[in-house]
Amino acid sequence: MWWGGRGQSFNISPQKEEPEMGLSRPKSDQGSRMPEPRSNQPSSFLASGCLPGEQILAWAPGVRKGLEPELSGILICTNLRVTFQPCGWQRSQDIPVSSEYDFALVNIGRLEAVSGLSRVQLLRPGSLKSVPEEILIHGRDFRLLRVCFEAGGLEPQAFQVTMAIIQAKAQTYQDQLYAGVTLSTAGQSSGPRKPPVPLLETSEDWEAERKKQGARGWRVSTVNERFDIATSLPRYFWVPNRTLDSEVRRAFGHFHQGRGPRLSWHHPGGSDLLRCGGFYTASDPSKEDIRAMESMLQAGHSDVVLVDTVEELPSLTDVQLAHVRLRALCLPDSSVADDKWLSALEGTRWLDCVRSCLRKASDISVLVTSRVRSVVLQERGDRDLNGLLSSLAQLLSAHEARTLLGFQSLVQREWVAAGHPFLTRLGGTGGNEEAPVFLLFLDCVWQLLQQFPTEFEFSEFFLLALHDSIRVPDTLTFLRDTPWERGKQGGQFKSFTQVYTPPAGNAVNQQLSVWDWGLRYSNKQIQQFHNLGYDPEHCPDSCFPRQQLSFMVPGPPRSVWLFSRGALTPLNQLCPWQDSPSLLAVSSRWLPRPAISTESLADQEWGLPSHWGACPLPPGLLIPGYLGPQIKLWKRCYLRGKPEVQMGLLAPTISGLQDELSCLQELLRKWAPGLSPEDHSEKRDPNTILSQPC
């Protein structure tokens, strides 16, 4: 359950009939036996909750444990998910996939069964030999579903549903994916519809976004409309006005996977943030191609900074290993002692990954906002760390990116449309390239939300919803590696050929996206996506007027810099082929490496040469802290399998505070039945309480 502390710990009063999730949860009757299964219960689920093509494999009555209050209901296994349906709860037609009760098969990380004498058994194909008394389903998103089966002639059903879950989980990843929920299932009209967030699948979307950013020196290129340059690139992207499509086609061929330099974000002050892949040094560019590449990298600026995003950041292997260790540490049955838990947390190196990303993103935001220049993020594949750093730099520099709509548009542009390999990084291809880079990005955003709580329009609940949505197989947003694969599966075109078949009538793709939150979340849940502490007047839209700001001045004429290890190093050339023919044999990380710096660029007074003069920090720029305790563990996300840890967490909403108060009052009734909280406390005006001295 993605609500962490609220849904799992705060809502414990048995008198409550409706939880904060907006779902009609029934009353708990812990004192009575679970009712005998009725024959119409699975058919009720079929009528109200089964998706097109979904089939029920097995079901059994049980009691959901680990939460307060315990819920009696039915554990159902289908070919797409494992779901728990409480007794008396009807699934809404408008919300066919519950964010609280459903576990997608692709999201199941580990299965465990508890049999006689509380012996825990790890379930694998062929390992189930006896009827389990209890089953524990550990989600890859750190959720836990714990269901206890009752005796009394129901043992065969418990055995069958457990066996069905084991077999369904053992299927290949592709067999567990769903092509997407149709609009009619989600209660939408079958005609053309406007998505809640621009999906950037048409040239009109890209043009509208370009105008929104005020990037006058850029245009929308259609050179990759048929995906004949790179299937990992979007069909449209931004290139300088004076660069012809024929030059773009030739220049992109000299970069790894055809991912040449293109605009990510135009700063209102005049700077441009670009991203590209590593130089493909095995090619032999002509003088015209080199001039075209330099023109795209410079983007009309005389000052250019190349940023090697691999430097100082963890490798993909490091990210994956840290995430595996973190998940093992946060399991409910972790063997780490309480007095050694914090040291074990640091030993996972996950927080170190977060620190490194925030530090480098802070430096990049300083580079973009300090001078009018072109800042180029260069990564060999241009599909992982480039997207992470570009997104964080925009969050630190632009107020628009911190709004709810702006952040969703940012993710759609820098991750989905830019070709981040979600399926591969989530382990869906069966290879050894799994690395949750996007989850690392969400953790970094959560850290910013904790350090600057009034700067973001979205709340922690929204980040949790996005975190849990990456493995929900009802949309194609996070289930494909490239825009070409996503468009092919969505029916935009039949195959990868030179002949492109556009959608009929220029209609928007009918496939739902992850931004259709009404598919899995109720209106009451969606309302909690908004941060009540957000202060839009703190950073008004006029903070960055659409002209060059007074504090942003041009850099030295015809200057090229390398930013590496927290320092700027001057370079003599922009492209490696101009230096020496021997550079054709080296890797994309061909630039010299200065000595490592222990200070960030902001700590070094922006790290700029002395002859440039001092520059004040621009308004609206966030400089996060990343030292020691400034980086915290995201408890509401990673410790959701331990409800007792969620107790006492500060609730970010008024309703959450009310739930915490109810929780504490219920505990007081249990521990001291003869005492009443009302006898020792009076309801007072919060303003009066705050005004009193401590």
Keywords:
single chain; 694 residues; alpha+beta; 8-stranded antiparallel β-sheet; 6-stranded mixed β-sheet; 22 helices; 30% helix; globular; disordered N terminus; disordered C terminus; Myotubularin-related protein 11
Produce a short descriptive summary:
This is Myotubularin-related protein 11. The chain has 694 residues and is an alpha+beta fold. The protein is built from 22 helices and 18 strands.
What does this structure look like?
This protein has 694 residues and is α+β, with helices and mostly antiparallel strands. Helices cover 30% and strands 13% of the residues. Strands 4-3-2-1-8-7-5-6 form an eight-stranded antiparallel sheet. A six-stranded mixed sheet has the order 11-12-15-13-17-18, with helices on both faces. Strand 17 and strand 18 form a beta hairpin. The longest helix is centred in the middle third of the chain and has 21 residues. It is globular. The N terminus and C terminus are likely disordered.
